[in-house]
Amino acid sequence: MLRRLYDWTLSLAGKPSAPYALAAVSFAESSFFPVPPDVMLVPMMLARPDKAWSYALVCTIASVLGGILGYFIGLLLYDSLGAWLFQLYGLTDGAEAFRHGYAQYGHWVILLKGLTPIPYKLVTITSGFAGYSLGWFILLSALTRGARFFVIALLMSRFGPTIKSVIDRHFNLVAFLAIAAFIGGFVAFRYLF
């Protein structure tokens, strides 16, 4: 199944609708969707290395806009929709500790989150229900998300053929490691915060 998704994403990169699909996934992932945009971004950059930088920009803008939606879910709808999302992911207990950490370390939480596999939607919703400054949230989100996606673009533009070769030869291992990192992000959020 994952191999078919990878192959489909590679073929999608050549279509005019590719940036729109990438933007939709990146936007949704920042506020409610569980799958990170990297699952589309990396194969699309591998298929079209000439568009790696524009794909990174699309991901960054859509992710920050989706993050603003997540922020307002936390700010205005935490008791209903926000709490449901945290409960869906089994992270309600961790969310409360994470919220209290914002009082002292809000800037660092957003910045360092970009270096970990902690799902961004959890940070966006928590930022809203913690009442974190919206201006700072947008600025730090743009820095963090931009750094993440542009580093991927740099790697893909410089080492794309080598990376594609490794993925093609060891697809199951790469998929396993990606899934482990994804699950590890939720576990880290739950037990570290």
From TrEMBL:
Superkingdom of this protein's organism: Bacteria
Ranges for domain VTT: 48-157
InterPro entries assigned: DedA_domain, VTT_dom
Membrane-spanning residues: 53-78, 171-192
Keywords carried by this UniProt record: Membrane, Transmembrane, Transmembrane helix
A Pfam family: VTT_dom
Entry protein name: DedA family protein
Protein's organism: Microvirga puerhi
